Amino acid sequence: MTQSKPAEPGYALSDLSTKTPTRFEIVPDAPARADLAADLGIDGIRKLRFAGEIRADGKRDWRLDGKLGATVVQPCVVTLAPVTTRIDVEVTRRFLARMPDLALDEDGEAEMPEDDTIEPLGSHIDPATVMAEALALNLPLYPRADGAELGSVSVAEPGVVPLTDEAAKPFAALAELRDKLGKPDADDSTD
After folding, report:
1. Looking at residue 190, what is its pLDDT?
2. What phi, psi does 64 have (nearest 5°)?
3. Residue ranges per structural domain of the chain
4. Chain-centre distance of CA 91, in angstroms?
5. How far apart are CA 60 and CA 189, in angstroms?
6. What was the pLDDT predicted at 155?
């Protein structure tokens, strides 16, 4: 029995008009949002909408412009309490038939191009994939609940005084001593 290849997600380039933009709007349902939240390792996605258009950009390239709106729930990095964040961002992707040559550093490793909106052009453009990537890139790295503060921890071997933040800044202590003595800086004195 022959199995057929599943259809590619998104829009086939052959179906897109080179003269008129193709508009799209993606509003995932609750199960799809839950799956995406699990993929991103966050507690939940309450709302998610991605709308925009795909249009030809020159003779062989394509461009996707859209607006991503989402309300996400993540655990606080301090207390693990749920933190709700609203994300509203403009998203642009340029799909290029010919990617620019990558520059090599002195170790011979390829450097990433500065333009992070470019992607290689394939046979399809999938706004849902762009939506998931844009959401992942715009999640807060360290969500913090209101009033949550990171305490300090001092650890040392028995008999050793733990190093504090203040002790790690010896010049701050010297400046404080100078201020107490009321003497001017060496730079402030005139000859």
Report:
1. 52
2. -115, 125
3. 11-138
4. 12
5. 68
6. 66
Total Cβ atoms within 10 A of residue 37: 19
Q: Which secondary-structure segment (H or E) carries 63?
A: strand 61-75
- For residue 37, the surrounding DSSP H or E stretch is helix 30-40
CA distance 44 to 74: 7
Residues 126-151 pLDDT 10s:
999 999 999 999 999 988 887 777 66
| Whole-angstrom distance, CA of residue 26 vs CA of residue 11 | 13
| Torsion (CA) 169, 170, 176, 177 in degrees, nearest 10 | 170
Task: Pick the closest to residue 26 from 64, 62, 66 (CA basis).
Answer: 66
Terminal Cα-to-Cα distance of the chain (whole angstroms): 97
Residue with tokens 């995932």: 28
121: nearest Cα among 25, 51, 52, 57: 57
Name residue 93's amino acid.
Answer: R
pLDDT digits (tens, 9 = 90+) for 57-74: 999 999 999 999 999 999
Question: In the chain, which residues have pLDDT < 70?
Answer: 1-8, 102-105, 108, 110-113, 150-155, 163-168, 170, 173, 183-191
CB atoms within 10 A of CB 70: 22
